[in-house]
Amino acid sequence: MAEHSLWRFSRALHSAIKERQPEVLETLIDDDVDWVIHGPIELFPFLGARRGKATVLKVCWQISENVRVHRFDRESVMLGEDTAASMMRYSLTALDSNKPINLRLAHFAQFKADRLLNIRVLLDTYELVEQSLGHPIRPPKIGS
């Protein structure tokens, strides 16, 4: 059985961010890739929706310029023939402030001909914003 596209893409993505070499992803991303990372784009402008390989490679570069990945753990993974989903935990450092960031995310990916075609990433934004700001968020109480 051939290796699933997720494993190749995942290794390349982490290498691209760690080594600041997003070009290692070029052969693993479809030219018309549809890429969305749902999160607070006001704090992290590299989040949000992007389309096309060149734009996605630029986003990967921006991520590598803003965070250092120390560790990631997959909590669960589901694989289909050309699809993949997983829950993950990351331990990062924000490069501008040297602050540690612990992040939980879920991703849903589709592949075509062993290339990433579509990905949706959902971040635990509440915890991310608190850690980035360096203090707890005190939301208003709703209801009684």
Q: If you had to describe this structure to a student in words, what would you say it looks like?
A:
It is a single chain. Strand 4 and strand 5 form a beta hairpin. The model has no long low-confidence stretch (mean pLDDT 92). With 144 residues, the chain is an alpha+beta fold. It has three helices and six strands, in the order H-E-E-H-E-E-E-E-H.
Essential attributes:
144 residues; alpha+beta; six-stranded mixed beta sheet; 3 helices; 6 strands; 26% helix; globular
What is the overall silhouette? Answer: globular
Biggest β-sheet: strands ordered side by side in the sheet = 2-1-6-5-4-3
DSSP E strands, number? 6
Instruction: Estimate what percentage of residues fall within beta strands.
Output: 35-45%
SSE pattern: HEEHEEEEH
**Helical stretch count?**
3
Identify low-pLDDT runs: none
Helix content: 25-40%
Distance between the termini: 56 Å
Structural class: alpha+beta
Tell me about the largest β-sheet. Answer: 6 strands, mixed
Overall mean confidence score, pLDDT: 92
Give a quick rundown of the structure.
The radius of gyration is 16 Å and the shape is globular. It is α+β, with helices and mostly antiparallel strands and 144 residues long. The chain contains three helices and six strands, in the order αββαββββα.
Secondary-structure topology with pairs:
Elements: H1 5-19, E1 29-38, E2 48-51, H2 53-66, E3 67-79, E4 83-94, E5 100-112, E6 115-123, H3 125-133
Helix pairs in contact: 1-2
